[in-house]
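Internal tracking record. Fields below are filled automatically when a chain is submitted to the structure queue. Please do not edit lines marked as system-generated. If the sequence contains nonstandard residues, flag them in the REMARKS field before resubmitting.
Queue: standard
Priority: normal
Entity type: single polypeptide chain
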Amino acid sequence: MSAANPTPTTPSELARYVDHTLLKPEATSADVTALVEEGAELGVFSVCVSPTFVPHAVEVAAGRLAVATVCGFPSGKHASDIKAAEAARSVLDGADEVDMVIDVGVAKAGGFDLVQADVAAVRAAVPADKVLKVIIESAALSDDEIVAVCRAAEAAGADFVKTSTGFHPTGGASVNAVELMARTVGGRLGIKASGGVRTLADAQAMIAAGATRLGLSGTAAVLAGFDDGAAGTAADGGY
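SYSTEM-GENERATED OUTPUT FOLLOWS
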């Protein structure tokens, strides 16, 4: 565990790591309102919503917390200029952070220069004062591929590398992947662990491994682990 990144010991400390997330296709504006209000009450860092909900989330949040969204989600199989346009629109709508998905198949084929170009295109559309996270779908990659993709994301100007969409059949975040990502970027980029982080024990393990942000859909249940001493299972919100 990094001395600069100690394990949170209170709900409020852990909440500041959290992107409180709702990316279900069937989500409604009322659901987003509830997400923002719950996030503000819990003291999370941000809410993460689908692009069409960014204006509504920004309005409801009213500066109480950051608003994040996704780009090229969840497959990453979008042309780079389309991803860039989507990201630019989200920033125009008020998003503070954009989580883009790489084309995992390109990475599996060894096209890391193409991954870098893809990230760079989105970075060019996301101003420097806004945060760009790069979702690498770590469970679908070998260790060598994780290292190469993280290096490509860093070279392209990303602010974070992120484990997972939470929608891929290979699974979500793992301690091994987070540790490997953290070693690769060496503190120069943030590390976001998302996908399957459903208990207090899960969250603390990811932070101990090097995560500096967590994508959670069941934040209240995770934080409740401090009260009951158990790592309660969070509802599946697509993350």
